[in-house]
């Protein structure tokens, strides 16, 4: 599939490169702050790509200065408890969890607050050496509310998560790599290309195998080891009902490149 021209959707720009759907946050004047409308556009773009059988990986990014520097505080400052509870804004974050297509975040600059939470919603994070991660909500009188206390703890452990959440501490890309928050760290000029390379590597695999592998890893910490192993086994067995499994094993035996069709 050829590269498609970018399509602007408010403060979001989407495009397609081969089998990779790209979503770029495009609010540079406010460091890509995540307004309600921006989150809605991101989720809708993810869901559109997820429904497209030609798209086998999704890349989410911002720009060199910021992946996303947090929520749009102007939308939150005067909100009440009832308004927050009834708005269903957090439902958008839950919808990201239901995306089956693997999502790679390409992060440069600030990934703070909601930006850090959004990056952690993705399946892999490729970070520029300039990337900075943090959950500084405590500095404005609140706490993370879109998964920050939960995903961060699962990624970096209780000690580091407590430090970041309670003090607002920020960590750089190398610390994030050392603590398991990101998958790779590369020079700033290479972070997007590296993330695209990862997306294309995923897109070259059997689509159902990639989706089920994502599901297996994503559920790993939600269940006991015994239950998780049983769940993994069922996903593994199901893949033997796909044409791609037959093609992949035949290609391996015949020493050729497999031609996966997503069936």
Question: What would your notes on this structure say?
Answer:
The protein has twelve helices and eleven strands. By secondary structure, the protein is α/β, with parallel strands linked by helices. It has two domains: 4-203, 2-enoyl-CoA Hydratase, Chain A, domain 1; 207-253, Lyase 2-enoyl-coa Hydratase, Chain  A, domain 2, CATH 1.10.12. Strands 1-2-3-4-6-8-11 form a seven-stranded mixed beta sheet, with helices on both faces. Helix 1 (36-51) links the parallel strand 3 and strand 4 (57-61). The mean pLDDT is 92.
Globally, the shape reads: globular
Across the major sheet, the strand order is 1-2-3-4-6-8-11
Given this structure, which CATH class of the largest domain is correct? Alpha Beta
Structural domain tally: 2
The percent range for helix content is: 40-55%
Sheet with the most strands? Answer: 7 strands, mixed
Q: Roughly what is the average pLDDT, rounded to an integer? A: 92
Distance between the termini: 18 Å
Q: SSE string, helix = H, strand = E?
A: EEEHEEHHHEEHEEHHEHEHHHH
What is the overall number of helices? 12
Task: Give the C-alpha Rg.
Answer: 19 Å
- What ranges have pLDDT less than 50 throughout 5 or more consecutive residues? none
Number of strands: 11
SS-based class: alpha/beta
Look up the CATH topology of the largest domain.
2-enoyl-CoA Hydratase, Chain A, domain 1
Give the strand content: 15-25%
CATH superfamily annotation of the largest domain = 2-enoyl-CoA Hydratase, Chain A, domain 1
Q: Which CATH-level-2 architecture of the largest domain?
A: Alpha-Beta Complex
